[in-house]
Each structure stands twice: as structure tokens, then as C-alpha cells.
Amino acid sequence: MQLALTTSTLAGELQEKLQAAAKAGFAGVELFEKDLLYSDKSASELQSLAQQLGLQLFTLQPFTDFEGLPAVLRSKAFERAQRKFQLMQELGITTLVVTSSTSPQAAADWQVLAADLAELADGAAQFQLRIAYEPLPWAAQIKTLQQAFELVQLAQRPNLGLVLDSFSFFALKTELTSLSAALVERIFIVQLADSPELTMDIQQLDKHFRCYAGQGILPIPALFKQLRALGFAGLVSQKVPCEEFRASNPYQIARNGYRSLQWLIKQTAAEPNPAPSLLSSLEFVELASQGGEANWLEQLLLALGFRKTHQHRSKEVGLYRQGQINLLINREADSFANAYYDRHGSSVCALGLGSNQLEQVLANCREYRCDFVQSPHLPDEMALPAIRNVGDGLLYLVDTAQAERFFEVDFVPLPPEALNPLGFGLTRIDHITQAVSSTEFLAVIQFYQILFGLTANAEYDLIDRNGIVHSRSLVNAEHSVQFPINTSPSRESSTERFRVGLSGSGVQHIALQCEDIFAVAKQLNPHHILPISPNYYEEVQAEFLLDAALVESMRAYNILYDANEQGEFFHIYTRHINGLFFEIVQRQGYQGFGERNAAARLAAQAREYQRMRELLLV
Question: Which residue from 56, 106, 348, 349 has the least number of CB within 10 angstroms?
């Protein structure tokens, strides 16, 4: 089975697209003809470049509105075909993708349509080429895969086969039971695309909302498993020509597509093994900052009860601890963190993910072509492997099966609080929320699923007064690692304001768990706490019938509340620094993230943002 990508999926010049596909791991590409027309390279130069990159140019596509035309148009269509065959020979391409005609002048007589395809296939055979016929749901006559199969059977040419496009297949509500061994034998190419659950015109959905396999709601794994069971072993191609992909970094989009295919192949193996949860803990959060901003960050951490307990042996990196929480402030010049600060300001530049199955994690990262990053270290310091995260941050992979913690090796303790930093009663990192672009949203979720075996919960919408924020959380089995992922199409929403301010995607907020939120709140400086509207407490008391004294205490400390059948949830938010803010949570059996309170929090943050704009601080 060969894995390919259509060049129409990627942004950039054709040369860039070929380079991105090769670097991502694809065996070759399906060449979109318009990419060729807009290129300043000749056919022979492109063939040479593909060979240098180790890529095969599998198909030229699409050849449109061919079969069943009136005599004058028919002769012109065959002239076009001859030119395509000659071009394909120059490019080293062996298959031409022909889409079913959308012309209103196309004949309805299947004998005429089949004769045209047979003659086209005969012309292609003179050049040792193949024809792959793709039905379009909006075509004039041949709309379904079954109809295309019957037409190909009628034409009776060995070099004439089919293209199965998963998006079109499911758009027409085709049943998997319609696939027979005889039909699958005639499939030359399987083109894959998923789709979100949207109700709209098929062509509009096709143009704007395709996504990679496993990122939407279509049963593509079931389709692919059925194809493999029936003997398909041909070309598998990602075909996702959506606007968002073509406005994004071509290598990142290509790499995400390759990961999606690798995931699909594993999911549809004869005896697939469910991905185990490979992460056990959130070991540390690293903040990049410099100068006065680093001092502000330090003051905020101290105000939350953290203490500086360790200093790195060879770098300007301080460790601030409380309970089992480890936060690093990296002020090191000429470092990754410093470069990250220059691009983004004070922000989270790296996360430390703990695993007691590190070798399996590293194997996954290599298999799915993650970008590894080498961090400089002295010989006696711990060499933590690191990969690129969402945006351009890092994920350090920490072996928790080792007896020594990372800070016991690389850091010098600062007594007396190094051994037992109790602070105000914060115990562990509860969850870390990342804000991403809409293009990255589905890919990031799949990234955490396939690399680390995290489970993705159902998507839900947060109501921001400036737009909708789409959110989906990823968790391990023990809920010791939790990553809500947020995106929003609205530029004025909290999520997009953060991304604009950060100049990219990244960690927007860090939630810290405690046993008694009221005891913690009494020790916090109100200046650092996000003020919640008094009206919120009237609503929450009426909805949950809470004791008046409890509600008054919540109001006094700006504590929010939620409850469900699992238990209760209390939480407080801090004001932000460069868009980054903290949350303090107390869970009593509750496993959500206080979603019902998102509107109150987002409204409060919007008021803060407006106040800062009026003060000309943003």
C-alpha cells in the first residue's frame, strides 16, 4: 500500500508542496493540474525534483467534463486528453484521474458514456497509462461509486479503474455493504477525507470543511477496514483541499496528514490494539520571560503561595514549587526559551510530560515523525528528549520510572523549603488549556490521541460575549493529565485575543488543584484575582439552592461553582499576564472543567480587556 497526498491540500508553490510531502513521509503525490500550471518549473524539472526528494508523481488530476459530449466538444475533449498523455510521460506519471462529467450536455445513454471511456483508455494504453474514473455527487449522470463501477464494467478495459473518494462515498449515504470484492478489485485509488457534522450543500461542504481521516464524524476506519478485508492494496491518498489547510504551513499540514494515515492503518489492522494511556503526570511547566516581566511572573507565583526551591546548576532557570507542582521561570540568554520570549513575550514555552513507558512514547514519536529538538546540557545533567508541541513550544518527555526527579539532578536545592514546599495548599496541576487556530484544532487533538493514548471527550461550545469558543478535552485514564483544547473563529473572543497577543498558539491557562479552596482564597491578594459579576451569585444560588452563607463566601472571594451527578466543583481565576492566567480548583468527585461557568469567566475577562484598552495597556 502506497501513501500519497494531493498537492491541492497544501499551500505554497509546487516545489514547496513536494518538499513538504517528502519531509512528512509520503511516498508520492497526486499532482493537481493547476499547481502545475502556476509553477515556473518545466515538467522535466519537476520530475527531476521529485526524484531527488524520493517522491513518485502518482497521478495527474482532475481531467473534467469528458464523456458523453456532442461531436464538436467530444473531439476537443480527446485532443485535450492526448496533450495530457504527453505531459504525463514528461512528468513520469502513470495515471490520469477523470471525474464524471458535470456538463449539462453530457449524454444520458450509458453505451455512449462507456464507449467514450473505452476509447480514452485505449488512447492511454498507447502511452502505457491508466485511467482512474471518479464519480462526483453533483455530476450530470454518474454520481455514485456503484454507477461508476457498472460503467467501467461496461467499457471493459483493463487499464480503466475507479477512484473511491470517502467524502463523496458518505455524502451520498452509501452503505459499506455495497462494496463487493469485484468492485474493490477495480479501485485504483482511495482518496480520503473526513468531515465535521454540518448540514449544507455537498459542494460547499466539499470545498470548505474537509478534514483528515479521524478528525471528523465519518466512519472512515470502518470503510478502510472493509476495503482491506476485500483485498484493496493500492494507492491511498489524502485529498483535503480546504481553504484553511491552504492558508497554513505546508509541512505541518502534510505531517498531520501522514500521521492521520498511519493512525488509520493501525486502527484497521486485523487485530488492532487499543492505544494505551502513556502519560502518567504533568511534571513541570516552563515559562519563558526576561527582565521586569520575569519579575512580575515571579511575584504572581509568590502571591499564589509558590516558593523558589531550586536553581538550575548551569542556567538562569529557577524552580518554583508547591505540593507536587513544578513551575520553571527560564531567564537564560541565548536559549530556546529566550528565542521563544522574543517571539511571544512572557508565556509557557514548554511542558514536561511524565511517562513510565518512555520507550513506547519515543517509538510513537519517531513513527509519527515528530520534530525532535536537542537542548544543550552539561555531561552530568539530565538529557530530556523533547518534541515540538502545538505552535512552536516544546514537550519534554520525562521518564517517571526513574527514581530521581528531574530537579534532583539538574537543580541545586535552596533550603529550607526545598524538601516540603507547602505554600497555600495547592497540590498538583489539574489541567492545562491550550488555545489553537481552527486549522490546528483537529490535528492537535489527534496528535495527543495517537502519540500518548489520551482520550478525547465530546466537543462543547463556550459562550463568549464576542463569539463562540469550541472546546474539546483530552485526558488519561486517571485524569492526572488533562488538556482542554480551545479554538474560536471570532477574532474578539478570549481565545483569539490571546492568540493574537501571543502571535501564535500556546498555553492560555494553567489550573492548579487544592483540597480547600476557601483556605487558599483567604491567603490570596485580591489584586491578582479576576472579579466576577455579583449577578452570577444570584443565578448560582437559585439554580443549585446553595446555603446563603456559602454563596456569600464565594462572592467575597470570587469563587465560581458547579455541580453534577459526580460531585461539586469550586474554582477561582487570576488576572492574566500577557494573556496567561491561572485557575485554582477544588474537586469533590467532579470530573468536568466548570463549563457552565465559562460564560461568566469570559465576560469578566472581556471587561478586564476593555478596561486595559481604555488605560492604553493593550
Answer: 56
Query: 542 with 588: CB under 8 angstroms?
Result: no
What does the block give as the cell for 77?
A: 475533449
Q: Which residue has the cell 467501467?
A: 152
Cell of 104: 449539462
3-state SS string for 501-542? HHCCCEEEEEEEEECCHHHHHHCCCHHHECCCCHHHHHHHHH
Tell me how crowded residue 76 is: count the other CB atoms within 10 A of its CB: 11
Residues whose CB falls within 8 Å of the CB of residue 186, separated by 6 or more in sequence, listed in order: 149, 152, 153, 161, 162
Q: What is the pLDDT of residues 292-301, one digit of tens each?
A: 999 999 999 9
Chain center to CA of 425: 35
> Does residue 343 have a pLDDT over 60?
yes
CA gap 599, 462 in Å, rounded: 7
Other C-beta atoms lying within 10 Å of the C-beta of residue 111: 10
Q: How many angstroms separate the CA atoms of 194 and 595, rounded?
A: 28
Q: Rounded to whole angstroms, how far apart are CA atoms 605 and 610? A: 9
The two beta strands, 95-99 and 317-322, are unpaired
Q: Tell me how far apart the alpha carbons of residues 140 and 117 are, in angstroms, rounded to a whole number.
A: 16
CA distance 499 to 599: 19
Tell me what percent of the chain is helix, strand and coil, each rounded to the nearest 5.
Answer: 40, 25, 35
